[in-house]
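Entry 14. Ran structure prediction on the chain below.
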Amino acid sequence: MNPLRLIITALTLAGCVALSALVCAEEWPAKPLRIVSPYAAGGVGDTLIRVIAPNLEARLGQRLILDNKPGAAGKIGVAEVVNARPDGYTYVIAPTANFAVNQHLFDNLGFDPLTQLDPVTTIAEAPLIAVVPTSGPASLREFAELARANPGKFNFGSPGSGSPAHLAGVYFSQLTGHSLQHVAYRGGPPLVLAMLAGEIQIAFPTLTTVSTQITAGKFKAIAVMSRARNSEFPGVPAAPEAGFPDLIFGNWWVLATTHGTDHRLISRLNADIISVLSDPVIRTRLAELGQTTLALGPDESGAFIKSESARYKTLIERNSIKLEQ
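Output, structure tokens:
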């Protein structure tokens, strides 16, 4: 074949590939979207999807199928999406740990979420809140002063090592001269029981974990780990007001897909999700679940995840935190 014919053939094939991709994008979605949840059924990620699913399915004209794949701190489910075909039909709904923390905690994660997943939307965030027993200090600054003056006397609890609540406590302890001891529990309910029993003196759980106890007067909330106050407890100061401008921690949730997925499909899905999240009824429902609606797009999400990953990496390395799966 002469050189001119080779060039014409190559251009024709390239045009066919481009046309095929365009047709694929125009016809998408032609079947249900599978959303992998890397944790046991009934968790926060599942709930978020179920809240937005009816409106989103109506826009897409297809069902959303939740597929729970728990295990190994979310690694199993996330890896399944990392290794899926980038065809716009497989997604993962996962929290802070799986996008910005685990790659720095575990030596054998096996993939990099920053480069092997493409974010679609950062849906919402549950801010953490500093709580103490009702007999505890009245402010976060007062607690810090007591901890600094009495190293090793106070314990902070978390619902598990490597969780945002654990890392928030590590950072607070760092600010008080590494004066606090960490006690890890298996989830939120044991953490609540431990504080009620006096085993720990402070914790930084999500608001939903302890809102009932705060309302009932069993715990005292002394700061919200966000830049603004929370509407559910407007009398509780935000971290900057409490004197800790960098003590910003929350558990946020991102919907992402396999790297290399057609950006037009990602943009289309993001636009539909943003429209759903703009509905006041949906935002109210998320607020009732302790979630602040974020509704970040693909580029914003990517930048946000990258920034959070760098922040957690510094914190984890500075405090020599390592976990085994």
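The domain at 32-126+251-318 is CATH 3.40.190.150 (D-Maltodextrin-Binding Protein; domain 2). Will compare against last week's run tomorrow.
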